[in-house]
Here is the input.
Amino acid sequence: MKIEIENLQPQNAAAVKFTSVNMSGIGELVGEGYGKIMGYLAQQGKQMAGSPYLAYMNANEDWSQFDIEVGIPVAEELPENGGIYMSKTCEGKAVCTVYKGAYKDLEAAYCALMDYSKENSLESTGIYYDYYLNDPAETPESELLTKVVFPIK
Here is the structure.
């Protein structure tokens, strides 16, 4: 797995937030969030302007509970509507890798980035991103590409 430090530029994103999430319920919430945002973008006559993402925030020590932001980059700011708000994608220096395979196996990428960060004395901001580079409805699970991003201080 190739790991790099990148300097990321932020993009505007339409997003929704869910609090007190756990891994067993995340898939349903992510689907709900993307469905809500895509419906809103269609109403506004707007298109995606980048890869959809999932940001993990405020995780407790054992990752049994955390908050998530489900977002889709857009070209311009849009009015807030029904829980959809404007956010920004990750900005600044980050440790990154692209993982190929099923979403349920992403832990391998997270472990690799955590080990790399520890070995190189890099301090995480505590927010972690998954950018979905292809569509799971059109891509075999074994071919899914997810860019995993650990912003660093």
Notes: Helices lie at 26-44, 107-119. The two ends are 23 Å apart (CA to CA).
